[in-house]
Amino acid sequence: MNKVLMKGNEAMAEGAIRAGCRYYFGYPITPQNEVPAYFAKRMPEVGGVFVQAESETASINMVYGAAAAGARVMTTTSSPGYSLMQEGVSYLAGSRLPCVLANVQRGGPGLGNIAASQADYFQATKGGGHGDYHLIVLAPASAQEMMDFTMLAFELSDTYRVPALILSDGIVGQMVEPVELRDFVEKIPEKPWALTGARGRKPNVIRSLWLDDEGVPLNNEWLQTTYETIRQKEVRWETFMAEDAEYLVVAYGSTSRTAKSAILLARQEGIKVGLIRPITLWPFPYQILSSLSLQVKGILVCEMSAGQMVEDVALAVDNTPLYFAGELGGRMFTDIKIQDKIHQMVNGGLQQWQPR
Amino acid sequence: MATKIIFDKPKSMKDVPMHYCPGCGHGVVHRLICEAIDELNLREKAIGVAPVGCAVLAYDYWDFDVSEAAHGRAAAVATGIKRVWPDRLVISYQGDGDLASIGMGETIHTANRGENITVIFINNANYGMTGGQMAPTTLVGQKTPTTPMGREPSSTGFPIKMAELIASFPAVRYSVRTTVADFKGVVQTKMAIKKAFELQMKGEGYTFVEILSNCNTNWEMSPVDANRFILETMVQTFPLGTFKDERYV
Q1: Which residues contact residue B189 at a Cβ distance below 8 angstroms, ignoring those fewer than 6 apart?
Q2: Sheet holding A298-303: strands in order across?
Q3: Is the Cβ–Cβ distance between A190 and A127 less than 8 Å?
Q4: ∠ CA A173-A178-A181 to the nearest 5 degrees?
Q5: pLDDT digits (tens, 9 = 90+) for B21-58
Q6: Residues of chain A whose pLDDT is less than 50?
Q7: C-alpha A320: how far from chain center
């Protein structure tokens, strides 16, 4: 086993390189600064290109250019920077350009703070930019997954011509863990649509604008058909002690790690509680949640937000009582706190979550 | 009797009607770009970036690879393309709102990096596509829908002189201002574009061609009067000439 100790952010960058990404454009923002620093050092070693852009707006549009040129390309940022990129993200989606983005979330809104948060869930999964589009959204919970999901994100993005987003947070980005280095990807898919110079073929055009009656509706139909295929094929989740569970916790990213600790504590007390952890936040694992909800007496959603993913859980769950625990503004959960919320759920001391 | 063709459509140009207003400079500059590409035999190496504005549909006329870009972001998109394909001819084609207002950050930093691309800047002193509103290059006193009493420097500042500004960056290789308002200007513009492309293909760095071009529809002038306005009035604010033609050491 070829394991090395890495920060989550570094593992993400190395994963990109191992996936064949040779172009990185980024702008410094905490808590993801290890990523551009890693690429700045590593890209020259592998014959790649690192550019420190003048802004996140420029970064995302450099990504647009490199993706249009057919390359595997990445940018990373944190919440305020990701907001600034939303125009470009919409254009990438509309122009069907594969690329990998990462938001190592921090507390918001506004400048917020530099602690971990999960308050950009809506922005990541429900749009962010203008128009009817989705990104493939993967939520890593460890340094290993920062590497693995980044590599997966490149594969999925190229397969579907849909941009992929790593929705991480300051804890996962900053944690140092042993990481098993994956093999380098040798073969990157052909991209006959890319801009390479029209040698021996008709010109290629990368666009999201059509001024006739048909173009934009047709582009949207293509996008929606693609999204439906992704919904059918690419939903990913993890269950933990869910088989015999009478209660469920739903959590993603770093919060799912804390939730596992809480579940182990509760299990020692004889409470049969398990976890569902969405790995793809879009497409969301509605079906598994729906079927597991039938076997349990209560579902507790834990997020470092005021309640965002809980709305998706509510869409999947019919009659099972649904509860929510949130941490606001960059505060993180402790296992004791989640254990306490589990107690309250079991004892009837917690108010059910209601659509607001 | 044998016929001899002495004037033809450039090979890099599609044989389709243009949507531009009669007399507009865009069509002329499109053609000059294609002529230069043909003469340098670069059609299969050319990758264009179209702006947001009247020229967004440039790919309907250019017979080579083209990408759209969000408003103002063409230089960043061109940077991404060029970094992937350093041996291709990458052309960013932008108007004044795109390049000098919303995209000023991208414009300046792309120039400051000395990115090895060519930026073709159409300066027509207004936002042509959205109805002729004030641009950063609108002349003092010029009436537009958003400066109905004429551009007033006390609240809107002065026209930005891009070719001079770009020339101030050490990594810039070539910065010129020409016009397509008369025949002499068209010839000079063609020479400037061709030179910029040649410099780029030699890897010499960032090249910038600002072209004074009329927007006769929004200026509410005939094309002839609009071109006369460029030659008599607009050049007083935007002098023609070469502002930089040297490689930094």
Answers
A1: B29, B32, B178, B179, B180, B209, B211
A2: A237-240, A273-278, A247-250, A298-303, A322-326
A3: no
A4: 90
A5: 999 999 999 999 999 999 999 999 999 999 999 999 99
A6: none
A7: 27
Nearest CA in chain A to B88: A197
Phi, psi of A285 (to 5 degrees): -75, 65
DSSP assigned state of B59? G
Contact at CB, B76 and A64, closer than 8 angstroms? yes
Residues B210, B208, B77: CA angle, nearest 5 degrees: 110
Chain B CB contacts of A206 below 8 Å: 66-68
> Does residue A53 sit at the B interface (CB-CB below 8 Å)?
yes
Q: Do B73 and A211 touch (CB under 8 A)?
A: no
**Cα A74 from chain centroid (whole Å):** 14
C-alpha span between A44 and A338 (Å, rounded): 45
For A290, the enclosing helix (H) or strand (E) is: helix A286-293
Task: Say whether residue A95 is in contact with chain B using an 8 A CB cutoff.
Answer: yes
pLDDT confidence of residue B239: 98
The predicted structure's pLDDT at residue A1: 65
Give the tens place of pLDDT for each residue, B175-231. 999 999 999 999 999 999 999 999 999 999 999 999 999 999 999 999 999 999 999
What does the pLDDT look like over B83-138, one tens digit per residue? 999 999 999 999 999 999 999 999 999 999 999 999 999 999 999 999 999 999 99
pLDDT of residue B249: 62
Between B68, B81, B88, which is nearest A209 by CB?
B68
Return the pLDDT at A13: 98
Would you call B83 and A23 a contact, using CB atoms and an 8 Å cutoff?
yes
Residues of B with CB below 8 A from A63's CB? 80
Contacts of B113 in chain A (CB under 8 A): 51
Contacts of A49 in chain B (CB under 8 A): 83-84
Beta bridge partners, B175, equal B208, B244
Residue type for position A216: V
